[in-house]
Amino acid sequence: MAGIIVAVFWAILVSFLAVVLVRLAQTLRATTKLVADVTEQAVPLLADASATVRSAQTQLDKVDAIASDVQEVTSNASALSTTVASTFGGPLVKVAAFGYGVRQALGRRTAPEPEPEPARGRSSRRTLIVGRTVPSARGRKRERRNARGQKD
Questions:
Q1: pTM of the shown model
Q2: Which DSSP string do the residues of the chain spell out, in sequence order?
């Protein structure tokens, strides 16, 4: 009787292990199919990604070349402006100053110089600028006007 019980348990155990092995085989087949499908789809995607990266690298190389050309043009323009400023800047300032002096001299010849105002109580301070007398800010109060021309 003990032999029959052991044989029955043995048969149940073998049946249970057979079911587990069949399910494990189905799972392995499904996993193998899934890996094959992923491999089929991943290889073209990786090829496309690689082509995209190569294209981006080519474009970056072109942009780098353009940026270096722009930097060279900028430095050349800076050198040119410095050269022009040093070549023409000094003489132009001298010509402008000479012209201003000539205008001032001709203006003095044609227009008589106004009489200075008499001092009011306090000594009036005056400042001499290029041959003209300008009243100081302390001597008189000025009406201030805003940007629209109205009194403040």
A1: 0.39
A2: -HHHHHHHHHHHHHHHHHHHHHHHHHHHHHHHHHHHHHHHHHHHHHHHHHHHHHHHHHHHHHHHHHHHHHHHHHHHHHHHHHHHHHHHHHHHHHHHHHHHHHHHHHHHHHSPPPPPPPP-SSPPPEEEETTEEEE-TTT-PPPPB-TTS-B-
